[in-house]
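debug: dumping io for the single-chain case to check the tokenizer round-trip. Nothing else runs in this session.
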Amino acid sequence: MEKVTVSKEVAEAIGFQLSRRSKSDLLDAKAKHINCGGYFLNSSAVLNDVSLETLAKALYIGYELEKSPEVMVREYYEGLIASEEALESIGNSGAQFRQGWQSVRETLHILGIKIEGVNA
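debug: decoded output
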């Protein structure tokens, strides 16, 4: 079985709940909420939208955090640069990749967004 992917908010809610109760107690609470119409409150409210199966996997198999949009843009940007460099290292033009990473930087500039490793 594979780890599940959860948002930062879900991971924080799981951590908070586990500081107050055991894994099995948390699963029992989730099952009771499903069966009786209850719900988690405050910072744990994000758990209301997590299935019992996903929560069980997160607790007993493990979980990974979803990549933030900033991380995904940085990885895309770095991939464009790496592709340009790979083509140019063998004597080919990497211009299309250069245009790609330059477009990413220009778009971020127009939107007023700073991403570490890209334009900050």
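debug: round-trip ok. Strands lie at 4-6, 63-65.
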